[in-house]
Fold each of these.
Amino acid sequence: MLTRQRSALSGARYHIGARKLTSCTVMLGCPPSRTSIQSLPMTPRFVARQLSCPTGFFGRIMGQLMNRHNAKLNAFAVRQLALMPSDRVLEIGFGGGVTLPALIAGAGFVAGVDRSQEMVKQAKAKFSKVVSAGRADFREGNVEDLPFEALSFGKVCTVNTVYFWPSLDAGFAEIYRVLSPGGRLVVGFLPKERMERMGVPTDIFTLRTPEDVTAAILRVSFTDVRIERPDPTTPWNVVVATL
């Protein structure tokens, strides 16, 4: 484990920070990985901020970790979209882009918005051919002010982002604005009861209960709101709602 590594930053403070780094990665569904995080001199708050908005060299590493360890949650969320070749899909907070290949393969057009300039740049480079063909568009932005016209999409998904939204009501109102009638929304997240055990910095993460999320979705006129999980013991929730 990272806490057993010695480096120029070794010592009690580094040991404690590394232990909390493991908590931050587990919090988003990421089990500890010796090969992926060992020897990275990152403090707990630094990790939390990188999860919120990946930047620079460590942001790219964080994107890779999120891709690897959140794969099951993301794959399940994509399945709930029930993609069709004619679909126009928006992903909010695509991060390292683990869902983008499946979205591009299953839909006619895929847009993505992320608050991280680094992640947007990475997506544009990786999927440049699809972008050039007019089948994808990646932009920097925030959920409370989506850079797209009203009624632009038939389906919207977002995974592990609601902890960083200033307001659930504002975020879901914007999603409502860009969705067309009959549209579908899929939201994946780890609930408050799970996250509370991990000691995440609450000035960076806002912990959300399933009731918080579903109530906010219902307030902006979504219907048929339900929570899906592949198994009753699954720690995370995926909320599915339609207009």
Amino acid sequence: MTAPHQLGSAHRVCGIAPNGRHRPDLAPGTDGQEHLMNADPDRALLAASLAFAGAAIVGSAVAIHNELPGQPCGISVPLSVPAGLLAGWGAGVAAPWPMPLAAVIAAARSQRTRPSALTGAVCAGIAMGCVLGTAIEPVTCRPRSWSPATRSAIVFNMASSAALIVAGWRHQAAARTRPPRTG
């Protein structure tokens, strides 16, 4: 019997894991090493959109607690922070709720339908809008005024936006290269 550590690169090329099980996601890398690849960009897009929605929820809670109203480019509305959030205006460290909602709906739909380049573009575009929106908020320009919660909310917001941008691009690229489903 061949020990698992003795299995050579031929097994990696065939998609067989060292334990002998078939692994279609096991592929050889250009450096001769095996790499796990996510064969389903739909799941990655859904996970990134849920993280983006989570960041919006955390950011909303921080904005309410620290009274950080949404003031993109200094423009404000005569609403309290909670009212502004409910109205879809957003807050200093939280995306307006329609943005994460649209991203989650688009990503969830991609789980049931044929992959669409439009879905990936929509999710990436929403996340890019969030990065831009965060950058033009006055609170972002005053890092010395940040509480630890504000700092965490901004970092979570930017990281989840970056993940959604990458997942959207990957989904878009995968949708363009996949053959159409038949039957």
Amino acid sequence: MRIRPRPPSRALPILALLATAFSIVPLAYADGDKGTGKKKHDEDSSSATGKSGSSSDYRKACDTGNGKYAARDFPGAIEQYRKAIELSPKLPLAFYLLGEAQLAAGSMTEADAAWTRAAAESEDDAVLHARVLFVIADLRERQLKWDDARAAWQAYLDWANRNPKANAFPTSAQSRQQVIDSMKKQDKDYEVVRRRIEETKSGNVFTDLSKSPPAGH
């Protein structure tokens, strides 16, 4: 019997993260330190929100979505995060939050798409990008894509090593890689057993010692 690992616990509980989500948002607009994305996000926010809204509208939509998520109104949260994305399609936070809501609603495929976009847009924000890489690696494990999961944890680990202020958890990545290696070995061992069972059922291998072997054995 194969034992599947439980999906890794999140480094930060999602509700706690939602409660502090806007400790990240101001970085996208005001902080000039390397890794916070000031230049990129300032440019993106001015171009992306100039016609359809403002940064305050973006924050309001995300904040409303967070409240709906906390109330377990996942469709409502998804609607608000999508509204934020329409207002500022180059800002990564709403994509990240949308992925969390999609996963909570049971759609790994849509969560995957949202987090892929969040990863592409968040490289100038070390903290948020680390968080996105973490949830992507977590998702790959939920999908039982062991090789992809191991590579995703390596990407997270590499980012953590390159960005010591990203609030990442490199030991978690290493631990998950060890679990994945064990699962891959378990799957390989199980495949050998499965083949033996199939061969026994087809008569190619005689294993029942309570009966006389078929002719020719």
